[in-house]
C-alpha cells in the first residue's frame, strides 16, 4: 500500500488516543431501545473484536462508529470531533453494497470520491486489485461477482480510503479458508500501518488470531470488554462465557 | 375492400420508394419529438433526481403533482400553449404559433413529467441502497446524485424511450399549436388524421405503418434494456 495519510501514533498500543468513543449511547426504534447505555472506546491502534449473538446490536454499533446513525441519547466522538473524519472512517457492511459498475469502475469511483488526484488513480487501482486478488475480475460487473469476491472488493474499496479507523462487519462470513486467510493478512497489514480496526465476528478462532481486545455485546448492552488473551480463557461477563461455551442465550 | 387493398399496396409503395412527401413528414416528426425529448430529459433527469434525494417541506405534494402530470391530456396542453402563443397571448410576441418550435415546446411539456416521475422513482430506490455507502465514503450531494444518475443509466434510458413514444404518438397538442401546415408543421400523427378525413388512405396508412413500427421498435428496445438491467 502507498504511504498512509495518518502516521502511526507510535509503537505502543496503550498510549494511543481512542480512535472513536461512544458514551451512554442509546438508539431507539419504534419505542424500543436497540442499544442502551452503551459505552465503548475504540483504541487508536490494534484490533478490537466485537462479539455477541445475532441481534445484539453489533452492526448498529458499527453504524454509530461510522457516524451513519445518530444516537438518540448519549454521544459519539472521533478524537474529540462530533462528526467522523470522512473518508478516514471506513465501514465494510455486512451485506456489501455493489455499484452498477465494473470492479475497476467501482474502485475508480471510490478513489475519485475519496479525493485521490486523477493522475494517481490508475496506479492505486492496480495496487488495490492486487491486494484483493481481483486482477482477473477487473472488468467484470461488480454485482455479478460471487459473495466472497464482493466482500474482497468491498474491503479493498474501504482500504483505498487509507482509513484511520476501519470497521469490518463479518468480513469473512462467506469466504473459503484460503480467502479468509488472505483477508486476515489484509487486516494485519492495515493494523501494522497504524489503522485501528473494529472487527465484528462470530468466529472465536478469528477473534483469537486477530484481536487485541474483545468487547462483548448482549441485547444492546456492553456485557464486557477485556484483553483478548483473558477473554478466551476467563471471560468476565457470564453472557460471554455462555456464548463461548456454545450455550443458547435467552 | 378493393379500395383498401389498393390503399395498402400504395402505402407500401410509398414506404419502399421513400416517397419524398412521406419522408419529409417522418423527418419533421422525428426532429420535433427528439428535440422535445432532449429538452424534457435536460429538465426531467435533474428534477427527478432532486425530488428523489432532497428533503424539504412540500416535497411530497410536488412528487404527487409531477406524477399526476404524467397523464396530462395533450389537447389541454395544446389549448393552454395556444392561448400563450397566440397574437393576443402573453408570449405572442415570440411569433411561435404554428411553428415547429411551438410543437417542440408542447411535446416537451407533455414528456417532462414522464421523465421526471420515472427518474424520481428509480433514483429514490437506488438511493435507499446507496445512501449509507455514499455518506460513509464522504460523497457530497453533487457526487451522490452523479453516482445515482450514472448507475441508473439503463432505467433512465427506459424513461427517455417512454417519453419518446409518447411524443411521437401524440396528436392533440401539435395539431393545435402547429396547425398541421403542409411542409411546415405537418407531422405523422396530424397527417394521418388529415389524410384519413379526406379519404386519402394510402399516405395515412404508410405513415401509420411506420409509426407503429417505430413504437414497436421503441418498446422492444425498452424491454431489451430491462432484460439487460436485471443482470447488472
Ligand atoms: N432500523 C431499524 N429499525 C428497527 N429495528 C432495527 C433497525 N436496525 C436494527 N434493528 C434491530 O436491532 C437489533 C440489532 O441489530 P444488528 O443488525 O445490530 O444486530 P447484529 O448484532 O449485527 O446481529 P447479526 O449477528 O445477526 O448480524 C436487531 O434486533 C434488529 O432487528
Ligand atoms: Mg450484524
Give your account of this protein's structure.
The complex is a heterodimer of chains A (250) and B (232). Chain A has a single domain, classed as Rossmann fold. The relative contact order of chain A is 0.18. In chain A, the strands form two sheets. Chain A has a six-stranded mixed sheet with strand order 5-6-7-3-8-9, with helices on both faces. A three-stranded antiparallel sheet of chain A has the order 2-1-4, with helices on one face. Chain A is α/β, with parallel strands linked by helices and 250 residues long. Chain A has helices at 58-65, 103-114, 118-131, 147-159, 177-192, 204-210, 228-233, 238-244; strands spanning 20-29, 32-42, 47-51, 73-77, 89-92, 165-169, 196-200, 213-218, 221-227. Chain B has helices at residues 2-16, 20-53, 59-68, 74-85, 100-137, 141-151, 153-169, 172-178, 188-198, 201-229. Chain B has 232 residues and is an all-alpha fold. The model of chain B has no long low-confidence stretch (mean pLDDT 92). Chain B has ten helices and no strands. In chain B, α5 packs antiparallel against α7, α7 runs antiparallel to α10 and α9 packs antiparallel against α10 (201-229). The A-B interface holds A 63, 66-68, 86-87, 89-91, 93, 97, 99-101, 109-110, 112-115, 141, 143-144, 161 and B 129-130, 132-139, 143, 147, 151-154, 231-232.
List descriptors.
heterodimer; A: 250 residues; alpha/beta; Rossmann fold; 6-stranded mixed β-sheet; 3-stranded antiparallel β-sheet; 8 helices; globular; disordered N terminus; B: 232 residues; mainly alpha; MetI-like fold; 10 helices; 79% helix; 0% strand; binds adenosine-5'-triphosphate; binds magnesium ion
Furnish the topology, listing elements before pairings.
The complex is a heterodimer of chains A (250) and B (232).
Chain A: E1 20-29, E2 32-42, E3 47-51, H1 58-65, E4 73-77, E5 89-92, H2 103-114, H3 118-131, H4 147-159, E6 165-169, H5 177-192, E7 196-200, H6 204-210, E8 213-218, E9 221-227, H7 228-233, H8 238-244
Parallel strand pairs in A: 3-7, 3-8, 5-6, 6-7
Antiparallel strand pairs in A: 1-2, 1-4, 8-9
Helix pairs in contact in A: 2-3, 2-4
Chain B: H1 2-16, H2 20-53, H3 59-68, H4 74-85, H5 100-137, H6 141-151, H7 153-169, H8 172-178, H9 188-198, H10 201-229
The structure holds adenosine-5'-triphosphate and magnesium ion (MG).
